[in-house]
Fold each of these.
Amino acid sequence: MNLSIEQQNAVEHVRGPALILAVPGAGKTTVLIHRTANLILNHRISPEKILSITFSKASARDMKSRFSQLFGDISSIPIEFSTIHSFCFSLIREYAYTNRIKYTLVEGEKERLNKFNLIKKIYLDINQQYITEEKLEALLNATGYIKNMMITAEEFLKNNKIDIENFKTIYNTYEKYKRDNNLIDFDDMLTLSLEILRENKHILEKYRNKYDFLQVDEGQDTSKIQMEIIKLISSPKNNLFIVADDDQSIYGFRGAYPKGLLNFNNIYPKGKVFFMEDNYRSSKNIVSVCNEFIRRNKLRYNKNIRTSNKFIEPISVIKVNSISEQYKYIIDDLKDRELSKCCILYRNNLSSVGLIEFFERYQIPFYIRDVKVKFFSHWLIQDVINFIIFSNDTSNMAVYESIYYKKKGYISKKQINYAKTLNYNLSVFDRIMDFPGLSNFYRSTLMDLKLDFKKLSKLSPPEAIRFIEYDLEYEKYLKENSMRFGYTYDSLKTILHYLKLIANNTGSLNDLLNRLKYLDSLCRNSSYTKNAVTLSTVHSAKGLEFDRVYMIDLVDGDFPSSSSVDASEKGKYELIEEERRLFYVGMSRAKHHLSLITPNRIGDKSVSPSRFLLELQNNKN
């Protein structure tokens, strides 16, 4: 393989610390693989003395396979390409064996004892209520962030808002329970490894002697604690080779720490920095726009992206009236294309729901990278379905109990408990009518509710959803409680909008339920679909490339998020700069064609185009 001068210079670096800053499509992994071969072939370094670390199993497998294809027979000794977690886990196992400690990993969802069940139980014990899926995810993200940033729960709470009651107590209880019972999760692999290396000189020296050369791929995704572990093992030789792009650091919420790269010269004053600024992937149109766009960020190395590729076609900025128009535009544009070379990117997983509905209807095969689309199991969807189920059988107390406080017409828990003692074949409303001391006004309200539910039972699914939302005042409940659930009201309205989109083509509750189940099953099994369009969040698409890329739902307040915009207006730019990097990662997946699409409305709400699109308007080629 012919390497460019920039690539060759990086490959030929042997001893001492080096940071290779590479733009998208510059061949980062290619350089790391060739440098590994250079150490073995030209410098007689034994493969067992080289440890190459990356941050996902897929990347580790890819590096191993590419090395094998290019240099398969250069050594009988296997070369170690490992994730940081896998490396740490082997270190912990060795320590545990020597010290006769039995650690149990609590990551598998199928295991009875896992971190999800553990946190759910702790949350229930402390807050006396069940945790929602959203809060569970927020809690796990916060826990991971604390560990990866090497901070305390107090420090986290000082600088971050988290809508979880008694967060600190839950966090400390979870940590203590794991410690007392020798349980570890993925984040503990890192904290425990660092603890072992700092406290056990024998193990530290063993690993320092074992590996003379450390190589780090995707260095921009390294968290603070991961970099501490790597620095500790590579010291004092410091034969540390980091390949990274600070402009593609998009995992701040997990504790990725791009500032670590910006401090490289302070940590290693004699370290070398190599720039790889040639993009071999994208057309000149895409490269020049990406370059101007990312240069607006201030917290970065000053590098330029360039390419020898030709101008092919300008980037398209498409404005449509509605989300449905957006899908129709894409469906028309995909006609007669090679679908496996096309990708649709979005900021939030929720955006995939409408795509899935339309693509199935127009028989366009798709492959979705994030199979767990939480829309289908969301509590809001279940609420709406429960309203409709109850309208068809108003004696169903179990269902009514889950919705009675989410609609108009106040009914107390006392009245519900009283109604439970009466004839369960009667309508719930008739039973509550028997409650002692009810006023005539209250009886009239109950009669109106009974009639409302009778009316609801006769409506088609799209009409029923609107009736629940406005006539039964479910919308009011969402507005008043959205923040308590860790949502904005707008995001809950968007979930309702997608449910209406699916309901529009169904004639009965049964049709709607079957449609939801069918679409959910399509998502879960989409990996088996041949010649399919890829649907992905921008986060999940990092490292991939496609001939044609469509970025959708580019709406201000979503991409960038309203919290990033608010922070930037107060002079805190880290969040909006990470969102700009994310937008940049999305654009730079495209080789030849890039469409950036923004709707004017989502449901019945007017929205504004992403401010990132406005920045691009001046740079478009």
Amino acid sequence: MNITLDDLNENQRQAVEWKDGRLLVLAGPGSGKTAVLTLRIARLVKNSPDDSFRILGLTFTVKAAREMQVRIDGLLEEKTRRVKLCTFHSFCTDLLRQHGSHLGLHPDFSVITDDKDRASILKELDDNGEIDIDNPEDALKKIDVMFTHGIDADELPNYFKSEQQEQCVVLQSIFKGYLNKLTESNQLDFGSMLYFSRKLLETMPRISRQVKTVYRYICVDEFQDTNLAQYRLLKLIAEPESANLFVVADDDQVIFQWNGADPKRLDELKSDYHPIIIQLPENFRCPQAVVEIANKLIAHNSDRDISKVAGVAHSQTQGIVSLDVYDSFDAEIQGVVEKINPIPKNQRETCLIIARSNKLLSQVKVAFDGQGINAEIVSKHQDFSCPLVQTIYYCLKLANSPDSRSALNKLCSAVTQINELTLSAEDVFAKSSVEGITALRAFFVMASESNILRQFCESGLKTLCDSMNYLSFIDQSFECFDSLNAQEQGRELYPDYSDDKNNWDRISSDILREHGSSVSLHVFLQEMDLTPKSKPLAKDCVRLQTVHTAKGMEFDNVFIVGLAEDQFPTYFAIKNGGRAIEEERRNCFVAITRSSRNLCLSYARNYFGWAKQPSRFLKEMGLVGG
């Protein structure tokens, strides 16, 4: 059911009815920010039926963008083309599809999602003698820092001391070489999307004006997660002096500093845009007890907005906050098991276990498996896992980029896992060169020697090589592989096939809904690459997540384990102190505010053979003595 204006409180209503200019909505956990954002966008559309301007909504996850789109369609009772809700990267992809030719990019560029492929570009530069690169992986990390902070090669000297200028020159050449290789091969990774989009808008004022004319209103969700590169891009499409910019943020939930987010970004926004500020302190998610300890905890951070109003509980749910202490981590896990066992299996999807690190979650997973509790460590995957689905995917990649050796290598690797047939990318490439045919056609001819792949290959030759009807190729390929994956004694022949296929169907449906059935192959692949491939979980599955992956979620029963010094906060945060501890505190704030009913906190006196003290955050919450 969609929330209406009548359901809002005074501050929420003010934000929804905001018209022009710059507005910053400081929205705490569970404050209804998504409802406010979607209602405002729907209201802008409804109140301007004769206008043609569009509204741009920028989010940080594909999931959030699509959920908001569904809400807005429901509010408007139709699907509108006047609203574009997308991630920063999706916006950049669309911009570069239209105008990337000014930078040497073609619209059918491919998206690199694997760091191994990115590192291979640097390795190629080194192998060819173009640039001396001792450690491609290390160089890639430095390139990513430059991308994240929006640093151009010409700006690098500002970040090096005078005695480090030689290192600076080396990194400049590596960065420029990497960018050149991307454009030459018509490829982009996530960092370069932002980089090239910013360059395009900076060097082509006409395109910048066009974007600002089309998108008269711009909304940004979770602004506190923006890195400097994203913020610099935002300033190019929303001029500080004249933009209609609506920003939703919470400085208490800045937890992605490793990815360039910084509490200072909100200060920059205030300084650059001078926005009116509306606060939404009401928490409609968390019970009173959770809101109280959250307020006590976050009050210890000194880098907060001094005008920030403390959270106010509005949930009618009577939740419970508990703290348990154990002698060892094994005992702590067993304590969680004993709390979960009474919960009916078909309701365990209401349970979330949060730890600061995957190391702790891995032990929880092993223990749960041993006791017959279904549990999964939830993480974002950019790629498919099953070789059958990978084969379909890399065939499409090779059809879109016929000269891509990377796509051919991965295709041959995937198909080799399907049966006893072993295909070499070198052999396929040699056949295509000798016979003057595409590598994809050569692949289908050679792979058709396999009995189980013959039907798939014959279909591929007709639908991809002869007619380029890639949607028919996808449908026919899944029909072939459905039969190939037929269950034996109730078990799939190829693990992950059903999950990957469900993900494919979901993402494909979203793409076709957004772009229509005539969507080109390169747009289809670009959108597919930008979307994480999340594994659907059963109702009896307990979710195991780090704080970072759990952000934005809510569960009835939240268990936070490992609340001991050196675990949460981490040893490195304690060692570095200051800002590092403040970020850890925000991590803890985010973790506890995922609870919509029961919050179970725990720690052990010993982890991995080392004695530990209770987390300082427990003391700050008033749950243990000082």
Amino acid sequence: MAAQWPEVERAEKEKRRELVLQGVDERLRQCDGRLPPALFSLSLLNYLEVSGCSELRELPADLGRLLHLQSLILCQNKLQSLPRSLERLRGLRVLDVSGNELEELPAELCELPELCTLNVSWNRLRELPPGLERCTKLAALNLARNAIRSLPAGLLSPRLSLLAAISAADNHIQELGADIRLLPALKSLDLSDNQLTEIPHELADCTKLKDINFKGNKLKDKRLEKMVNGCQTKSILEYLRAGGRGGGKGKSKPENAVKEEKKKKQRKPKRDSGGEEEEDDEPEVEDVNKMMLRVLHIAENPAALTVSVAASAKDVRPYIVCCVVRGMNLKPGNALKRFLTAQTKLHEDMCDKRTLATIATHDLQRVKGPLLYDARPPKEFTIIPLNRKEINAKELLRQLKFEAEEQRKQKKRQNVSGLHKYLHLLDGKENYPCLVDAENAVISFPPITNSDKTKIIKSTRDLLLEVTSSSSLQICKDVMDALVAKMAELNKFTLENKEEEVTSDSEADRGGDGHGHPAASPCPDAEGIRHLVLEQVRVADADGNLKVLYPSKTDLNLSSSSFAVVR
């Protein structure tokens, strides 16, 4: 007799239009890895999510019977293929198959006329099916973390007039075609960590483009690479519009290019042993490197902070990685806002809306170690959520669910925002994960919120970073790598802007040090710290056996012209 699936029975009985199945591996094992046939008789469903199932490797052709589906979320499973019957879902608007083991996509995918959002990130794809331009309503495409070598010609098509966001980071893409100009609605383009050597100047014809990321590519044009690593979207587009690689004839050069040219003229030429001048290409490269002011230094002596993992966490959310970062400067301008925005973006993209992993950042000065990573009944622990009063976990979830229902009623739609988006990640859990300090205060409640007690503020300089996951330890490490790299870039950006301001003021006011020498290069802050220091955090089980030490020698092996890792 087939195992009972109460969620499916309830959905059929109550004629529900939404169904979420998460972490149902035990039942899948009982059914030989197959979803219950009754699921595909729920003809009223317009939202179906089956996620976090390591036993789910394939879907039956019966999927095509769910003719009213508008959103199909199949993330974080072990799917190796998608059924061709997918083409029968003519009303499908959102398809998320991220975090699986797909090596190819069925051609039938291109026959979905209403498809708006396609997320195939974190798979093993080498190419996309031809004909994707037939999905004329496509607005967002996420291809990150695959093995794609090129974007198909059809993707850069005027037929995709609504395509506003393309994320193709961490692939093997070697060229971006000039046809990128044919996407009039393009606002966001992420091609970081690929194998590009050039950026086509036609990119500047995308008039709505606001956010571009080409970091981690070895561009031939070092000026352009510097702008790319400095997140200077406006400068990049101006540079490309002027012809790139130094600007075109008859065109005015962008301000950044002019500054670079002046610096190059001021450099003294090298001389060989005979006194003859040599062509000097190296100084420009060196200057680019010198401008990357942030050096990540992994401390030789790990900090005393440790984390012990209780056995109860194993069945709830078993993986945790932590790290201490010292030397962040969040005071100037909107530095804190930029840091929090970067964290949110990682949650949305790399963490796949917290389904793969969850990040928490703490003010280290407010953390009392050693720490305990535990799983407890929601009635038995309290937390002070960000910008809320102290409350026990069960009551917090009840409040958030009530708020979510009110949001739905007011907006007259199923989508919710804020913490309410993540409530379903705890469905079916008897115990909830939490990170507890030495005073028995809960400082983190993943994947929902961390505590107001350890909240990051502008004066925060030293941070405890925490990444948890129910999927794998490697995902935690990958996300931590990305978070640390982003912090280095943000700190470099802050330092560059601050030094520019100080240098300008200093030269205007003094013009030197009073002894005939130029004004000295200013320190980035009162303590003169010009690098981030990473301190290892040891995570062990209840018996003291090491589970993970981050960052280890195999972590943070990132190639970047923005920073260097000194071990």
Amino acid sequence: MDVVDRGQFSIIDYICFAFVLFFSAVIGFYHGAKSRKSASTKDDYLLGGRDMGLLPVTCSLVATVTSGMTIVGLSAEAYAHGIHTWMLSVTLLVSNTVFLHVFIPVLYELKVASSFEYLEMRFSRSVRVFASGVYTVAGLVYLPVTVYVPALVFNKVTGVNIYATVIALSILCASYTAVGGFKAVVWTDVLQLILMVVSTIIVATVGAISVGGFENIWDAAERGGRLNWINFSDFGSRTVIWAYVNSSLINIYQFGLNQTCLQRFLALSSLKKVKIASWIVVIAFGCFIFMAQFIGVIMYASYETCDPFTQGIIQKLDQILPHFIQEKASIFTGFNGIFIAGIFAASLSTTSSYLNALGGTIYEDFLSYRFVNIEERTAKKILKAIVLILGAVQVLMVTVVQKMGMIYKITNQTMTLSTSTIFGFFMAGVLLPKVNGKGAQAGACVGGIVLTVLIIGGMANKPEPTLPLSTDGCSSQKDALQFSNSTIIANEKVISEASDDVIWLFKIPFVYFGLIGMLCNLLTSYIVSLLTGGNVIENQKLLAPFLRTNAREHRENLSQKENLIQRIAWSKN
């Protein structure tokens, strides 16, 4: 039933699409050629020499955190479950405040090249390798999502095979990232962010006009229950406000301590610029959340009485946005191409950022200590080879992602698992002076195991249903209703069979998994550290700024007590 009208994708659409790919490659190879002419170092390749301008770095940060999942995934989420994700914007404000006052001052003052370098300074090399390994595995799971989204969209509007698009996109992105390094990634992100903004605004504007304006959109969303602003009572729902405590933890890590973002913060020349860039990113990403939700309710207004998912016209809810674009393509020539350009721009920026960050992490944390005396030129060649290999792995991993369900859920699970493990290290390191390396590793293991068990066990739990989707207004109403009823009955049978044997532990909603994993992590870290001798922090820069004074006073008090004890002993002698 998923028929594609290839004629709707005109020569102008292909030109818009090719524009993104061509200029991204040109920028990447330009910086690669430029670096060969100058005596650039490994630090230049990974951090741009730590003197990048505020504007390109900020644009790159926004483009990095705003992936194709943001536009496609969140719009599908709003279509199926309502606009509850607006609360992400609120949690971002809280998370960013914590990040700027607790974590970034520590990392910036220490002049670390990566977040994992801090863990070695605070704990041990084994902790650094542990965290790097978790980050690498999580990155390898997330990377294929970044190319699968545009491939899915491109397949919908052109019929081009998904794997052909994935291969072409991965080769292109890995090539210009490997050749041009950090500066290539940053400057291509600037171009791609512009395209993302333009395409999103055009899609929202055209969509709103097509359904009769804002008033019709609002009325339809209200009738369909999509205006679920806030929910206090339904503890197990994905829309409940308490679930966003989990998002706050994820946001501190994903928008700050995540190596892809931290690389850019560390590339700025002052802490003041870091703070400015961070707040701009939060505001800009909040705007993208709003636009994605707006597009989601526009689509609901368009399909309020004839849902294509229930009819079987699309097989996954993630396909609802490209399907909507395909139907509206006749509004003006090039509309398809602009949308595709925006999705590809979002995905290219995130993919290149992760390739660059993962390449640096793998080299710095797993290989560099084996190649202590190699030349800078050789080190750069190794880094480029790693990026190209990651591009190949990315293609292979797409086959796994394709079978894992909704994109929003996939990325959320990946972020939650990596956050609970890696962010636990930073929480313990910066906020808990007593925690030592043994305790930190034990906490990460326990928290990761608990979270993994909950995720795997929760797969058998009853999935949360979408808000009502109707086919009453379809032209083939009888067939649509018959399909809808048979699908619902089949799903209910599978769910009831799967849910009967689910033990109480696995009935905990996924939205609380991150918080549970983090609490288990920190509690275990602290207890094991106390049982293994605790810890004394000599370098106060390793702690959060507001703890340093207390630690200094504590040390002075201990010194005074020791002097008093010595005087008493001397007087007795």
